[in-house]
Amino acid sequence: xxxxxxxxxxxxxxxxPVPQWSWNGDMTEARITEQLxxxxxxGCGGLFAHARSGHITGYLTDxxxxxxxxxxxxxxxxxxxxxxxxxxxxxxxxxxGNTMAxxxxxxxxxxxxxxxxAGRQHGEVLLPLRISGDGRAEIVEKDADATHAVVMSSGGGxxxxxxxxPQTTRTFIRLTHERYRKKCGEAFGxxxxxxxxxxxxxxxxxxxxxxxxRLQRDFLQDxxxxxxxxxxxxxxxxxxxxxxxxxDFWRTVNRLFNECFMKPIHDWCGENRLLFTGHLMEHxxxxxxxxxDNMANLRWMxxxxxxxxxxxxxxxxxxxxxxxxxxLKELSSxxxxxxxxxxxxETCGARGYHTAFEHFKxxxxxxxxxxxxxxxxxxxxxxxxxxxxxxxxxxxxxxSPWWNYYRAHADHVARANTAISQGVExxxxxxxxxxxTGWMHYTGSGFDEAGGQTWKNKLEWMRNxxxxxxxxxxxxxxxxxxxxxxxxEEFARPEDRRLVVGERTYEAVVIPxxxxxxxxxxxxxxRACLEKGLPVYSLAVPxxxxxxxxxxxxxxxxxxxxxxxxDAGALLRELRRQISPYLARPDGGAIAGGLVWRRAVxxxxxxxxxxxxxxxxxxxxxxxxxxSAARLDTARxxxxxxxxxxxxxxxxxxxxxxxxxxxxxxxxxxxxxAGAAPRRTAPRRTPVELAPRSIQRMRPNLLYVDYGDxxxxxxxxxxxxxxxxxxxxxxxxxxxxxxxxxxxxRTLVDRPEDKDTGFAFTYxxxxxKDVSRTTLDxxxxxxxxxxxxxxxxxGSAIEPSCGERxxxxxxxxxxxxxxxxxxxxxxxxxxxxxxxxCNIMPIYVIGDFSLTPADRGFAIVNPAIPAMGDxxxxxxxxxxxxxxxxxxxxxxxxxxxxVGRIPSWEGSAAVVLLDGRxxxxxxxxxxxxxIPGPIKAGGHALAVDILGxxxxxxxxxxIDKHPxxxxxxxxxxxxxxxxxxxxxxxxxxxxxxxxxx
Length: 997
Description:
The structure is a single chain. By secondary structure, this protein is an alpha+beta fold. Helix content is 25%, strand content 29%. Strands 38, 39, 40, 42, 43, 46, 48 and 49 form an eight-stranded mixed sheet that branches. Strands 10-8-3-2-1-14 form a six-stranded parallel sheet. Strand 53 (909-914) and strand 54 (917-922) form a beta hairpin. Helix 1 runs antiparallel to helix 12 and helix 6 (213-223) crosses helix 8 (242-271).
């Protein structure tokens, strides 16, 4: 037991979180060292670094690789790994636009249906059509008779290369992978372990169908008939032979995607001591338009992955997360079948600036429960200047008030990951995925005019029924994996009453309701399984084989061992009778309440991970095989005996999981577990009276100013939101909009400066008439990249060089007390000439003041002493940092220890202090903190620091949607009243409780 206990107490770097590190500004050696030291201090195990919106340094330039090499060496010094993310954001294969710049002939092509008009440029017309009023289409010979045309044109934008062309990947590898190898190949396999490809997709536009002359040639070679004329029409529009043509089409596309992209990357990584990882567009299932077959494509990753970001996962109830559960089942099944020791999930990000531990833990516990052992949190931004602040926030960096307390969460992830990774999951039931059925029905939305929405309705039905069955089996605690037909074709073989798939063996196969099609290889395998005595449990008898109508599945369904069921409930009842789940209630029934679980069998016993990512508690009596159990404490890194009730060869365990709660248990067949400490008994608690002493804001207050007046070239826009003004200004400067999403250094950063350009933007804020001189003297203003502007406040110049770094490496704060005045204040930034780094962004007024809602935003007034309750309603609507609530108490006798409880609060975290000394952060129910003793008798001070909410500082304050740039641009036309700003309540709402032990 020593090995598990030691690993658990001090987890290795490989089990720790590996954040996505966003190099989204002008990266420097100093900032690299600063942030890497923070990542190490906060318990991370490594980083994936990549360029993102706002990047200045120059992706794939010599400077990029020099900094990257420097980061590898600094990470090594700090005990961190440093991995390759192979793209500028995503999708992989683009090389930040360099793939297409290198060879424009690699442009992605697609076919679409468009209205036809003589002389109009459609692209290349492949089929001129006449579509009648009832939607029927026929090919016509004369353009004059055509109403529509199937045309081939560039798809997915100017930077999207053809992922079905092998030259794309050869170019991509040469431009990206080979340059990393040349720069720091000696670190591959040691400090640099993973190569991450993010969302490579076969068609970026999502509207048409991928197409090219090369694809037509490959299709002909694969299937013996040409994809043109009537057959092309059957691919695009629904006709009698469409299932066959579409199946053949996507089979070729699937093969080419694997052979042209996935396998070459896999092989290159293998040859260079790297593990190929990343994820595809798995959430689109059963649509093949972006990823033809997720499991068959992930087969080529050494460490296959998925995506489960914060805006996707809902810590509410299982029913809100069906697709993510099925995706993770695909991932865990594939990893198990192919013996992949590593799997990855990109987690948590993109939810918004309010995201913190209450969102991190349920999302990552859910992910860990599927055996994922590369936890890849998204995102950690280098800078929040410019549009980087609008790039899928939150951020795991020193911008966030909770960042210095991330270590506690990282330790939990690392310890849970360590324990789960010491065993393997072995499931006995295989549920088939009806992926190729979706192939038969799919056609792009670009063809809806002629085909209606019937294909979408069909795919939606498939999606819902398959997810429903997966969730029913999971909720019933069935141990099952998902089976992909092409994985089965390559790795499956029948044995006596068993089906072997790679490294796993199954005792039953389930055919889902949505499975209308079988590949010929799957049909052959099922026939062989039935002959070997393996039972097949079926909710449907497929009517197609390889997309062709066939009676063979119906004939096979008459064989002994094929068990047909009218509904899922009947099937699952019979399955439970035949293959009893490893996890159940003591009476053998299913455990209700949405329990999330993982069973991993290792050399030291069986690891059980139970968690509750949902909004309601889970209380359950469970029964598992074994004789004893030990509880692994992910906060302390300790292992102690866990109480159980013996029942023959099984034990009964009581679970009481609060929301976000978990239990991590080692269950052994031995009556005692060596190395497990005796169970700690809960000490008697004696209430201690707390007397309020003070409430204090620990940092200066903020006023967020996000509206103003834009002037350039004789044009103006008054009282406009800064995000909308920024977009407008870029257009006035000759651009399509803010260009910093993805760019070439040579076409943007190195763009020649035009001395005749410029603009001015005036921010207006109000100071109350009774504000004291002391308050005025405290005022400062925070401005992004002030060195680019002339800055004036009420006509008085502010010297840009006298600012102090504030909040971000590209922000400076300036004292403005002498120029500020009661009433309206106007701060103007003027760029003459316009500089490519000029972005119109909010400013902050900083100081010792309070805010009161006004007709336009908020007005600065004299500071008020904070009180218990929501501080956003107490003059601090934008304050993101910490407020300290201090209490006095006295102990009549020495106490063995104390327990503090914080019953009601809102914020990103709470921190408990005793006599001015920080004890620990509090993040999750029951919101308690143990204060170790002894604590001497006499007077003491207990303080609770509530850490604020980044969304209150950063927005969006006007719309509650995906936190991207457009969310900020969608603000009201003019600055709204302060009462209309969206704010998250923050503060301590009830006095804390204290107990002596």
